[in-house]
Amino acid sequence: MKYMFSSYQPKNSFDEYFKDNVNSAREILIPLLSSLDNMGLEELNRNHSAAKKLLLRHGATFRLNDTGLKGTERILPFDPLPRIISKDDWVTLEKGLKQRLEAIDLFLDDIYNSQKIINDGIIPRELVESSEGWRPQMIGFKPPLNKWCQISGLDLIRDRKGDWHVLEDNLRCPSGVAYFLENRLVMKNIFPNLFSGRIVKPIDEYPSYLLKTLQELAVWTDTPKIVLLTPGIFNSAYFEHSYLAQEMGIQLVQGHDLICNDDYVYLKTTSGLKRVDVIYRRIDDDFLDPLNFRKDSCLGVSGLLDVFKAGHVALANAPGTGIADDKMIYSFVPKMIKYYLDEEIIIKNVETYICHYQKDREYVLENLSKLVVKSVAEAGGYGMLIGPHSTTSEIEEFANKIKKNPRNFIAQPTLELSTVPSLCDGELYPCHVDLRPYILRGKDSWVSPGGLTRVALKKGSLVVNSSQGGGCKDTWVVGK
């Protein structure tokens, strides 16, 4: 039998399957590589096709953000070669993720209340209050359990040395967890033999932990009524909204299904109004409440913020958490950890240049061809310049954007993200990956073992977002 990876050529970046070449596999990968070799490339391709059909049957699709009413549903491209993370590595990552979210939560509570971190000169007031995620409506507010962010998904990458870094924080409405869960179901159904003889941490407890986290927010009752608020079927993540609601056994609702009355929120039912205690909202702040945010929103519930601030309903996550998604605020997280916890950061940030500062801006403008430049409030791979892969005109265009609005941009070195073998058009080749673990914070904190590994399936691409041609693969945390 021909060795499946005989023609595979790792890149210069850190390959998570092989050290230097296909004859030097990483020890933790040897059992999996043996199983794959016994399977053979032909059978792997057949099973890959079966996996796509299974995902379609399950409805695991997404809609591109700019397709509107004419948009078509697409299966999120799935790669069958799992990513492997050792238990020892995971212990460190889990500790680092909990540390980071604890500090960010303390930061959120601080800036909307006493503002000590601003008054002590750690973070400039102008950077906080100029952020698109800043919500002055939340000043003076204390959320249930004194926690602002119950559900988060942080993006991690490994550099060419194999060291882990946090690339971005996602606290508003982090997505992708349904695909994370579906990937494991597909692997168990289509590739059961790959699990034989190895211990892979289970992930199917996520919905029950999510439900428990939401239930704990209703501190006024032991039997809370919980709903998931979605923008509707044309949202790119609607599959995930319906999937999670079904898994938790809660109702999926839209804004017109709810009404605020006498400082409470009610669900409209055929038997009358039923009080709602907790809302897992998948709508951005701007559209959540037309009375307090965008007046033209048809997606939210008028008066919802007032009921939340009165303490008669819980929202996950709290409005205002989006300021921590600001890529400029991200650069201050190591200082937050030191300031609030008096600890050194466990998972480091990527080196970041803040274009708001003249010295950083001058360096960025002189080195645009070498850097990755990001708009601080954009997501999904949009509003970004990858210098080494850009044309002269694209670089000039971004230079003008930075000069016009420096607060809106940060820059980072062009990192060689780690690679994992991936299957595309019947061939195996190294693709760059990131990792989005999911962290739940109720009375306690819980981190999903592994997370959603996103793959840049276009050869040579560094962009893993599904809207930019990326896909995903199952992530295994292995070991006793």
Automatic annotation (TrEMBL):
Annotated ranges, domain Circularly permuted ATP-grasp type: 82-456
Domain of life: Bacteria
Gene3D superfamilies noted in UniProt: 3.30.1490.270, 3.40.50.11290
InterPro entries tied to this protein: ATP-dep_Glu-Cys_Ligase-2, CP_ATPgrasp_2, UCP005522
Protein name as catalogued: Uncharacterized conserved protein
